[in-house]
Amino acid sequence: MSQSTNIPQNQAGGNRPQILSSASHKQSRYAVNRMAKIAMIVCASSSFLILLVIIAFIFREGLPAFIEVGFFQFLFGIDWSPSRGMFGILPMIAGSLAVTIGSIAVAIPLGVACAILLAEIAPFKVREALRPAVELLVGIPSVIYGLVGMLVIVPAVRQIGGTGYSVLAACVVLIVMILPTIISISEDSIRAVPRKYKEGSLSLGATQWQTVWHVLIPAARSGIGASIVLGIGRAIGETMAMIMVIGNAVMVPTSPLSPARTLTGNIAVEINYATGLHANALFATAIILLAFIVILNSITMALFKRGFRGQSES
Amino acid sequence: MAKVNPKTTQTIARTLIWGAGAVTALILVAIVIYILARGLPFINWEFLTTVPRGGLSGEGGISSTIVTTLYLIGLTIAILVIPGVGTAIYLTQYARDNWPTNAIRYAINTLAGVPSIVFGLFGFALFVTVLSFNFSILSGALTLVCLLLPTLISTSEEAIRAVPPYQKEAGLALGATKWQTILHVILPAALPGIVTGIILCIGRAIGETACLYVTMGGSAAMPTSLLSGGRTMALHVFYLATDTSAFDKAMATAAILVIVVIIINSLTNWIARRFQLRLMGRS
């Protein structure tokens, strides 16, 4: 990036060697060069514009619900009944938090353990076999996880009690879905720890496990933290697989076996027929969801930044 | 903890970690085998070439969903490539370390974390309602472009950054303009990486459902134009599983999707390996 600024770009002088273009192109290629730069700036601003338009639309449609229903009434109201004009999303917040916490609690230890296995312990052949497997888990569409959940997990949960469409089933499906995220990013960050850390620890007589636990994991902790936050983001944002296994009943889940509804599911299930204030309330649901994501994203960025600083100090 | 012999701790920890690895591997193998075993027997020529009946019946095949998926992917990639690769070029070749660049990077990172359903809601509000594209492949594709833009930008950026700087310097030293250097030197060298990024996007487009569920309408009919509604294969799996009890057909469609994902993963790995070898061979 830096070297590009010292190279003169617009010297249209005649003494310039003409290797790549004929004399007739001499002037036009500099014009093209300038136009190209403008075109690239336009391209680059597209993401920024898209984000702005998304935020503008979601807020334009969502804010009326906050005003009409009342912000706290909306956020902490326990009744969601569009036909009676009642819009409280606390049950959905509770549903989203329940499945996220439930799945993360299992996926973190399992995922970090797999990352350690892949990065440090497993012999080369095992690693080469497991890596594509993890990649495949990432690539499988979420509806397929939902489908397998409906056909395998839900009946299994039904054996314990209830209809099977439950927070527990949703958690099991989510665990499988976020594991690959946690594994691959944690593995990368453990691998990124400078070799000398590990060698220093081993040469001091530490066992392999002591090295992993006291040296590698602390050194990679920001990357591991980021993988967890990304996993949480994926869990909160998942929609279709959740609709398929969680039952979608509007209620604050009281046990792992009771059905629930997530924030994302609330939007997807109702948006196609919602009108008026009901539609506004769904956009407002998206605002709450976005707020969760922005908070998580800031945490991720902070963690990554800390990670890079840590590496440059070494 | 400190009193325990480190060797014992090590043995316990290694056992637990191998256990975790075995559980994960087992889950994966079980899922893939389950889908393929339940789905593959129902795949035949008739299934692939019949239009699904739609509604609550669950009868018929998946031909229109395959066509819709192909239309959607073609349109999405056609719209996506220029802004995606263009942004990557800007960020690697033109951008200085100033606030607009940071704002663009922040926007890309934020977009990457926005849930699919929020893109869907936005697409529903803008493309379906305000621009009156209605529930259509076009609305779905435009929504997908917003969703996939961060993915293509970051993979293309990585690919361009992997091009050795002396190639660019050589181009500039020969008197080429910056744009000529980008077009004739940098982009060809980064092409395999960019293609990998595009294939990744295709893979995600094939599996994406939430944002398409609210922008494409889910009609089971064969699409006649880009403005007709439709359902992709992944959406078809969802409709079959939730509206009907045709789980065999859902599984068969899922099996096809899993095979496509396996092909895509092998393809990207193959390109990535060749790309790496080529770059290493030249440097």
Summarize the biggest pleated sheet of chain B: none
Largest interface: A-B, 100 and 99 residues
Approximately how much beta-strand content do the residues of chain B carry? under 5%
Overall 3D form of chain A: globular
Mean of pLDDT of chain A:
81
Class from secondary-structure proportions of chain A:
mainly alpha
- Report the β-strand fraction of chain A as a percent range: under 5%
Task: Indicate the percent of residues in helices of chain B.
Answer: over 70%
Q: How many helices of chain A does DSSP assign?
A: 12
Give, in spatial order, the strands making up the sheet with the most strands of chain A: 1-2
Poorly predicted runs of 5 or more residues of chain B: none
Q: What is the number of helices of chain B?
A: 11
Biggest sheet record of chain A: 2 strands, antiparallel
Radius of gyration of chain B: 23 Å
Give the arrangement of secondary structure elements:
The complex is a heterodimer of chains A (314) and B (283).
Chain A: H1 26-69, H2 71-76, E1 80-81, E2 86-87, H3 90-121, H4 124-139, H5 142-160, H6 167-191, H7 195-203, H8 208-219, H9 221-237, H10 240-246, H11 263-270, H12 276-313
Antiparallel strand pairs in A: 1-2
Helix pairs in contact in A: 1-12, 3-6, 3-9, 4-6, 5-6, 5-10, 6-9, 6-10, 7-8, 9-12, 11-12
Chain B: H1 6-39, H2 45-49, H3 63-94, H4 99-113, H5 116-130, H6 137-161, H7 165-173, H8 178-207, H9 210-213, H10 233-243, H11 247-282
Helix pairs in contact in B: 1-11, 3-6, 3-8, 4-6, 5-6, 6-8, 7-8, 8-11, 10-11
Give short descriptive properties of this protein.
heterodimer; A: mainly alpha; two-stranded antiparallel sheet; 2 strands; 74% helix; globular; disordered N terminus; disordered C terminus; B: 283 residues; mainly alpha; 11 helices
